[in-house]
Amino acid sequence: MDDEDAARLRIDASLLNVLDRVAEYRRLRDEANAALRQAFFDLARAKRSAGYQWISPDLYSARPRAIATVCVDETNAIDNAAADESKIFLVNRRMAEDSDQDDSSSEDEKPRARKTSKDPLLWFGMLVPPALKDAQKGFVASLDSLARLAYLAHAIQREQERLQLDMDAVDALPK
Amino acid sequence: MKEIYFNADAGYLEGVVRGYRDGLITAPQYMNLTQCETMDDLKLQLATTDYAPFLQNEPSPISTSTLSARCTDALVAEFQYLQQNSAEPVSRFLEYITFGYMIDNVILLITGTLHERDTHDLLEKCHPLGFFDTMPALCVATNVQDLYNTVMVDSPLAGYFRECLSAEDLNELNIEIIRNTLYKAYLEDFYSYCQSCGEPTSSIMAELLKFESDRRTVNITINSFGTELSKDDRAKLYPRLGNMYPEAQIRLARADDMDQVKSILEQYGDYKRMILSANMNASSDSAGGSDMSLEDIFFANEVQLNKDAFEQQFHFGVFYSWLRLKEQEIRNIVWIAECISQQQKDKVNKYTPIY
Q1: To the nearest 5 percent, what fractions of chain A are helix, strand and coil?
Q2: Which residues pair with A70 in a beta bridge?
Q3: Chain A touched by B325 (CB under 8 Å)
Q4: Taking the model in full, what pTM does it have?
Q5: Which residues make Cβ contacts (< 8 Å) with residue A146, sequence separation at least 6?
Q6: pLDDT at A107 (0 to 100)
Q7: Contact B223/A52, CB-based, under 8 Å?
Q8: Given A47, A112, B79, B151, which is the most exposed site by the fewest CB atoms within 10 A?
Q9: Which residues, listed in sequence order, are joined to residue B67 by a DSSP beta bridge?
Q10: CB distance from A125 to chain B under 8 Å?
């Protein structure tokens, strides 16, 4: 009975943990949804202000480099459930100084290549409307939420699998 | 006496452009557009407008970028009809209007080359009204001197490049300076040309171009906040005409934020009235969400000035005004389309009504 009681307590704790994560997932998803919605609206405002010709994919760089990457660390997720959650999905933002090192190889291939700035906002010109800057801030801010959402989805799935195993183990115990 | 000879040179085209003006979307039609739930509904409503021939072959669902491109095609077709049927002096006036689009194309090609875009892709994206013969050669220039000596010297924009030759490499900052310097020279030259046309063209176009200059001054100021553009460089980009020249421009060149810009504008009668009337409309509107930004105020005033240009006859300003009103109409249509596609129905009425 002690084993069964302990197992049932573990199941209860796991279930509460799953429900907490689901609640956090829903809250974060609503926040990200609102942030992205506002960012897309700001983008529409910027297009209206500057002209639809000036804020379009036609002005994207032919060699875009991401200024933020998401690193996935799976070892902690599998081996250590109590690991610091912030290490699982990390959003790394590249600093402006890193761009000079990356440009060295491209400059060897194209001696006439011009140095361009890292901020993709400058693809659309130096004097962009404030709405475009607001849109960029919105998209940048939502990236952290999206990385957290990806982690939570992964964590909830893991917890559900563990919960199912515990419940099967309880059912298998002799009555 | 000039009016007697005006119809011989431009009477037919004035009649055509007044017909174009009558084809602009009216308030009831805008109401129908704002009540659309989907882009297909919007396309159906636009089938009763001048855009129908350009939209009918587009597959559903239509995107906002495609809608913008097809509406622009309609505008280009109408303007090119005017150009092809014009003779001096109307042809010269219409040519002046196209110089603004040429400047945009030059900057688009230089910027695209800076970002290593394919030349053919860039040429396809250029505005049709701004094409000139040596434009494709822009992609080989690496600095301003090359740009001028190999390409621009034979183009209609050659005279405007004089003030740009101090910049050396083509980077984002210099390209922006070149763009605004070219447009500044173009506006001043266009203004001088309109003054030489005599009344009533000179007075009507003077008001329109001065307002355009004021708007550019304010936009440059606001957009330069938080950028590498110094205050001295900012002041050099302001056109040397307009109601804000020179006193307000000196003060705007020193401004650091939006509040300072508004407080400067409120000290000038016309702009103070515009800002106050916008605030009154915002407070009395029960629908909410109708606070007009400075940009909305400028759009509304521009529409009013361009509508007023049609109240007189025998001048070339009707061609310029029709084009600006048509561009505003396209801006409105695409704005409504964006609100529909993004499910932002509470913002759909924030377009600038024309008629």
Answers
A1: 70, 5, 25
A2: A91
A3: no
A4: 0.88
A5: A32
A6: 40
A7: no
A8: A112
A9: none
A10: yes
